[in-house]
Structures are given as structure tokens and as C-alpha cells.
């Protein structure tokens, strides 16, 4: 199976808008095109001062201007203060910000010109004075240019799985697109004449197709691009046509159902004569498996029971899809069992279970049709074929779902 799916690992790259990059994998290092912060600015709403001329506190200084975030850079005049908002550029020559909380405004209207000769750079501040109650250290509440990242440094390395925080960094340096690894294209076909889509009224004997949505969701959750989700009854010609359509758009096709020993095994009937290999794997659920090539596109034929289809995906498809997408492998855990359990010997069992603090507890019921119970699981227990009984506290291998 590994060889069959190995072409999926050879991938190209594509540029995508930032929001579409969420969950995708960066194809190359992203280098910061600008410094962050891009200019020296205030970390607080307060007053920009120069510590060289502010030698004792309290000290009352004329307020020379009021700067909002978005204003341009002004020149500082020694011995004055500039009222400054968080994010506004620090006046050239100022070297510290005194937060508003450490100041008291002086409510008089002594003209600035009476106290210190200044250039009239910003009318808003004229006539105001402020008492600075605490001496700031040089650099206090100043965000230096490039103190977050310097232009030319690696902002995000290739292989990063893009999350919201990465979108923030990319947006901050002004990028609108990034280059990501292409996703493996997956098609899903559920088979069985009993299947109808969700939302349909169930005629006698019919059931909702859950494997189609389940396999599509599993593929998408593991880095794939789901290009088609289809359903086929047990008519061989119809299934063959749907398969050909799926193979035309996908790099791998997953089918479900039609691979056991009944009278209506459409997947076996269509693919058997075309060189497919059907085997019984010594695992449960997920025993009946098959592989085929349709128009050079690999096809994995999963068994129809809903739990079997999902477990098959986890065991055979998830590792290679994640590797193809560039996503990290899901590492197994080792946990003690909360309660004992027995396992059918001779087959590797994948039992549904839930994490229970640091331990793990099996979910009762081994039937491969128990899809509601499966929904309560967050892990599979991987019980070796030679194990039949496990005591509480025994360590087991756990595969996170
Ligand atoms: N005589 C034997 N019978 C069966 C064997 C066996 O070895 N000998 N194996 C059993 C095992 S194990 C499994 S698993 C299933 C696999 O059968 P198929 O892959 O042929 O699947 P179907 O017969 O089509 O369906 C089985 C079961 O699952 C339901 N199903 C199928 N597709 C869907 C779907 N898309 N959504 C929801 N449910 C689905 C279907 O209605 C059946 O109940 O064979 C056992 N039998
Ligand atoms: O293997 Mo079936 O896949 O046990 O239910």
C-alpha cells in the first residue's frame, strides 16, 4: 500500500490568500520583508520625554503636542513632553514614555511659549502642562524598531502548519499570499443499494450514507482536498462509471462497502477483473481490504461497516495523507487502562476508547456498526493479536483520533 500511495508524496506548491492558508503547510521559509515594529513607537498612552533633561520627579513639563497612532514622526524638544497614544511614533529625540497613570495634568493655560521656546509643530498640545510623578528609565515603554523581528530574518519556517497566530504575523508584515504545499486530492465513493443521502426519508431497508461524509471529513481533517463525494448502488456499470469520474479528478479514491463475501459486492465485482487485490487483514475492525489502480490512480477499498471504514482510514490512509500534506504524523501514546478488557486473540484489535485523565477507558461494544458509540471515542486502543486479556493499570498503545 505504501508503494501504491507513494506518488502522493511528490507535491507542488501554490500561492494562497492568507485566510485560505489556515491549516495548510508553508512550502518555503517566509522572510520578513520589513522590520516589526516598523518604527519606534509608544507602548502606553502617556507622555514621551527625554530622560536626559528629566532628572527629578515630580517635574512639570510643557506639553508640546498630542500624537495619535497613525500620526507621523515629530521632533522632540528637550525639556518638554509630548502626549502620545499607544502605537504612535516616538518623537525623534525622546527616549521614554511616562504612562498617563504616573502623571497629573496641570489644569491651567500657561502658554507653552512662556515656559519653553518650542516650534509650533502640533497645536493640540499647546498651553497644557503635565506633572510627571515618577522618573522613567531610558527606553521605558518604548517599542524599538525591529525589536520583534528584523527585515530579512525568517518569520516562519517551511513546514509550518498555518494557524491564526501565523496569519497574524504574515498580515503584520503586509503579506497577502503565502506559498503552501498542494493538498492531495481525494475522492470518496460509498457503495450499497441501501444508501440514501442525509435529509432523505428512509424507505424500508434504507439507511443514510454515513461513510461518504465520514471518509470525506477524515480526509479533509488530515490535509486532503476532497474533490468528490459520490454514492453508488450495486450496479456494476454505474459504479465503474463513477469510479472513472473519481479517478479523473483525484489522486486517490476511497471506496466503502462491497468487499466481503455476499452476493452483491460491487467493488469486488468491478475491480477484481481489473487486477485489484483483495485481502483479509488480521485486524478488527477493518479486516476486508482491497487495493486497485484505476487509470493509474490508486484506489483503497474499505469495508462498509461504518466503524470499519473509519478505522481503515485511520490505519491505512491517515499516515500517508498527512505525510503528503506535510502535516506532522499523529504519534501514538502509551496509557494505563482504567478498567480491564478482553480482546479477540489472533487479530490486532482497534478498540474505541476515551482518555480518562492520564489513563484510558475502553468504550463497551465491539460491533462495527456502533457509530454513535464511536462518536464518543477520542482514541483507538491498538491491542496486539497475541493479547487476549488486559488488567486494569496495564499499559496500552493508544492512537489519537
Ligand atoms: N460471510 C461473511 N460476512 C461478512 C464478513 C465475512 O468475513 N464473512 N465480514 C464482515 C465484515 S468484518 C465486514 S467489515 C463487512 C464488510 O462488508 P462490505 O465491505 O461488503 O460492506 P457492505 O456489505 O456493503 O456493508 C456492511 C455494513 O455496513 C453498512 N454500510 C455500508 N456502507 C455504508 C455507508 N456508506 N454508510 C453507512 N453504513 C454503511 C451496510 O449497510 C452493512 O450493514 O462484511 C461483514 N460480513
Ligand atoms: O472488519 Mo469488519 O471490518 O470487523 O467489521
Automatic annotation (TrEMBL):
Its cofactor is Mg(2+). Its EC number is 2.10.1.1. The keyword Transferase applies. InterPro entries: MoaB/Mog-like_dom_sf, MoaB/Mog_dom, MoeA-like, MoeA_C_domain_IV, MoeA_C_domain_IV_sf, MoeA_linker/N, MoeA_linker/N_sf. Pathway: Cofactor biosynthesis; molybdopterin biosynthesis. Keywords: Magnesium, Metal-binding, Molybdenum, Molybdenum cofactor biosynthesis, Transferase. It catalyses: adenylyl-molybdopterin + molybdate = Mo-molybdopterin + AMP + H(+). Gene3D superfamilies: MoaB/Mog-like domain, MoeA, C-terminal, domain IV, Molybdopterin biosynthesis moea protein, domain 2, Molybdopterin biosynthesis moea protein, domain 3. Residues 187-323 form the MoaB/Mog domain. Transmembrane segments: none annotated. The keyword Transferase applies. Catalyzes the insertion of molybdate into adenylated molybdopterin with the concomitant release of AMP. Belongs to the MoeA family. This is Molybdopterin molybdenumtransferase.
